[in-house]
Design a protein that fits this description.
single chain, alpha+beta, GMP Synthetase, Chain A, domain 3, 2 domains, three-stranded antiparallel β-sheet, two-stranded antiparallel sheet, about 30% helix, elongated
Length: about 130
């Protein structure tokens, strides 16, 4: 992955032929032209859980179009960091009862969540071109 600085507060990640653009909100000095990096981080949690739920449903021929995940968080007032992240999987009335616990279990398999829970170490270095 390569990160580029593209003017103003726009920072872009380039990976596997994709570009993911980020910006800061106006109050943070950006032009709000794209999500902020932290917003993408938070979105990665819900979308990761979502792909596990979607795959579970696909494997059982259960329609997933009416399923929704609502994500919310509680933040520490001093640090601004999330202390609790909640995912509510909203299922349609006709969702099979026997799979409700399984849907929660597959959402728990999310690789993003597992990475956060394992607290990876970070190493930041510099080099000159």
């Amino acid at each position: 992955m390569e990160i580029t600085f593209d003017g103003g507060k726009v920072i872009t990640a380039h990976m596997h032929g994709h570009t993911i653009r980020t910006d800061q909100p106006a109050e943070g000095g950006g032009s709000n032209s794209a999500p902020a990096p932290f917003e993408l981080f938070m979105a990665s949690i819900g979308t990761c859980a979502g792909i596990y739920v979607k795959s579970f449903c696909d494997n059982r021929n259960i329609p997933a179009e009416d399923i929704k995940i609502v994500q919310s968080a509680v933040y520490d007032k001093e640090t601004g960091l999330p202390t609790n992240i909640d995912l509510e999987i909203q299922l349609p009335e006709n969702f099979p009862e026997k799979y409700i616990a399984s849907v929660i279990n597959v959402a728990e398999l999310c690789k993003v969540k597992k990475t956060i829970m394992s607290q990876p170490k970070f190493k930041i270095t510099t080099s000159k071109k």
